[in-house]
Amino acid sequence: MILLQIADPSVARGVAEHSDFAARPLDRLEGTLGYVYAVVFGSPAEVARARRVVGRAHAAVRSPHPAADGSAPAYSAYDPDLQLWVAATLYDSAITMFERCFGPLPDEAADRVYREYAVLGTALQVPEGRWPADRAAFRAYWDGRIATLEPTADARRVARTLLGGRVGSPAVRAVMPLVALITAGLLPPRLRPGFGLRWDARLESRFSRWLGCLLAVYRVLPRRVRESPRSLISRRYRRRDVG
Questions:
Q1: CB neighbour list of residue 88: distance below 8 Å, 6 or more residues apart
Q2: Measured distance CA(43)–CA(25) in Å, rounded
Q3: Is the entire prediction scored with pTM above 0.85?
Q4: Per-residue pLDDT tens over the stretch 101-145
Q5: Ramachandran region of residue 168, left (φ > 0), alpha (ψ -120 to 50) or beta?
């Protein structure tokens, strides 16, 4: 999900210049999931609060000038196009992992989930009409973006910091090789070389085995255990200072 987001040059530049999330990957993940849970499952008041939290965080993430090396244009975290792309990666990552674990959703349920995820962007600066109208339109948008994205030096630097296993607690560093393998395996093949990620049949086999084992364990967990991270993250997110 994160690598997909920073495959956009403007997102990568904003992250590189204004964020230290690569050194605090769990904090970034918790913040992202807290926002998702608030706007998808929360009350109108919780949606409004999440919007204020993100708006405060985004206020300084901008530059009126293109990158000196020409790799990215001027940017703002309030740009609807960038917010649409980030929201799209959240939806695609969530539905991809769900369907890998439990199989494809029936069309009616898949359409409902897709409509619900539109709020990830429209709760911020994405006009409602900008979210692709249906799943077919989303797939056309998605495929078009994937076909044209070119990870920049900023993106590669953030990815190396994030996946290199040199930051975070000892526990985080210990699992980062597996996280890096799963992340690379889930990335669209076209984008791997741009991030400098080596991939071959041996790594594909290892990825498939590990992901299969992880999903098999997740499938048999009691529902209350599967949902406990959402409850914990939502409680912590509600306690965040809006500013």
A1: 121, 138, 141, 142, 145
A2: 27
A3: yes
A4: 999 999 999 999 999 888 888 888 889 889 999 999 999 999 999
A5: left
